[in-house]
Design goal:
alpha/beta, Gyrase A, domain 2, Isoleucyl-tRNA Synthetase, Domain 1, three-stranded antiparallel sheet, 52% helix
Length: 561
Amino acid sequence: MNPTITSAVLPEDALEAFAGAVRDAVAARYPQAEAANVAFEAPRRPEFGDFATNVAFSLAKVARRSPNDVAAGIIADLEASAPNVTALFASIEAVAGFINLRLAPVVWQSLVARIVRDGASFGRRDGDSPRISLEFGSANPTGPLVVVQGRALAIGDTLARAFRYCGYGVFVEWIINDAGSQVETLARSLYARYCQNFDASYPFPEDGYPGDYLLPIAQTIVERDGEKWRDASESEWLPYFGQFGRDTIVAEQRASATRFGVQYDLWQSEKELRASGRMDEDLAKLAQMGLIYESDGAKFFRTSEFGDDKDRVIIRRDGSPTYFAPDIAYHYEKLSRADRVIDILGPDHHGYIGRLKAAAAAMGFPGHLEIMISQLVSLMRGGETVSSSKRAGNIITLDDIIDEVGVDAARFFFVMLATDSPLTFDLQLATEQSNENPVYYVQYGHARIASVLKNADASDVEAAHAVPSLAALAAPAELALARRLAELPKVVRGVVDHLAPHRLAKYARDVASDFHQFYSECRILVDDRETRLARLALCIAAKTVLAEVLDLVGVSAPESM
């Protein structure tokens, strides 16, 4: 199984060649059987090899033999008829009916060479995939972004980066919920804070927003307008304070998102959507499609015909739209300009899933809308729960979290668990410089590689970048690291297919762990030049992949720590 292989062969090339050889062998041995479907998966236990295929199971009935006998027969045929293919594998074994494969070191060496050559473009695809509309983080413009919105921002932006890596065109948007009663409540709360600058006993509304964040906004109005609004009528001050508070808070939310490394293509005002007439136009289109009917003075959307538990009111008896009306109109616009629409909603929005998906189906886009729920975040510090209540006025903002632990730790911790799982964020752990802190562990791995390359002779590093012979990479720790690096494109593809950004955080830790293992077992700057250059090339590949996966999560890759 080990003749000389003169050309670079990558893992996918080896598996494709193996699948073709198996199909040929099956056709020759079992001409009565249908064409063999040769699929590969990772074995449950690493000692069984790198890949396995269950092709023998589908042939057992035709062959009238056990799957393991069929697998052994296929292997014997390949060794006789396709030695150029079997040479790509260190071992090919029949185990419990499976054909277990372990790739030859030269294949992993070729993979390392590709990463070194491709650099940050390794695994990336050109933008020829469907268009994605991705909405996340959207919040009422009544206060600063808080922790649960920080998690949605980290999840959404990581997904957007993963989609772009896979070649999708991504349009990232935020809906400003500024057309409901909450803006009037904001206006009354802000006006009370304004008046309290002149009369401390001025009553605060019972249903108001008591957070201290309104104090500097009120102070700004005092500095601008003085006592101008104290004797104004409510019809004068209410719209002014509502608009001023809304604009100021939205600007602060945008600044927080930017500080967190998140940029949006569109900040869509719900109020503007209504005022422009687009909502009425979209609802009129839906009425023409027969999707809206009137009953008892109200207008209903026929969502029950598309999986919802009941039809939904969109226009009340008094002619005012419900919250669902602009949601329908906005989703109609998104679905009309994208191939796939993804919403990341907060933990209190489970009830919206059925009605929104039904609305999408009713509008002619069944299956085009996907909804994720970003679950709650509990804060801990030193083993104690950190509590907050926006209604009570003691809130912990996203900026507070960034101030305490930094953007890197916040983003990494926010995406560590599956989106639909509640997250306990340990603020103390996030600031520790120890291997127990996952983001520190991963970033230290990148910094350690950078240190190795910095301490190596510059001419050696240059030669390693030119991809020398990598035949010296054969130790178990070296091959294990190479195998892990090869997983990057597949991992990102899994993130996109399953909307699972937490896989990137896990993969980053796995890469760092495998590098640390390699570093402890294989001295890099050895006297033998071929071995030294090969290991430096492996370091360059590991640094490239680790930097790429950190960037996908929105975390920096430090050169030193």
